Amino acid sequence: MRKLSRLMSQRYDQALAPAGLNLNQYSILRRTGGRGRPLGEIAHELGMDRSTLSRDLKPLAAAGWIESAPGEDARQRLLRITAAGRAAVERAMPLWRRAQDEIDQGLGADGIAALHAQLDRAIAQLQGEAP
Length: 131
Known about the structure:
Mean pLDDT: 90
Largest sheet: 3 strands, antiparallel
Distance between the termini: 22 Å
Oligomer: single chain
Number of strands: 3
């Protein structure tokens, strides 16, 4: 599993490099809505802990691609993608799509469906959602 994960990440990182993003950064930007989303919600959706996500946000904030806004209470932090962040995603999206299409072609429709089904079951089990 770790080898597959590393190989997939490397493939996407190489594809996204011309846009100045890696896969984690692209994923974070895609999930950071314009209205703002809580850090914990994004971390859960990405399967990351909050401290790892916070660390990964630093270069995105330094690039001006995300911004932080206060939430409903003082403890909550909302993340929003900026116009520059949206432009970065727009540059990266066709690169990601091309990499995704190449992977899909290599594995075939049946292989992709089987892989997704197995991954969904494993994720559900590890998150305590499986029967």
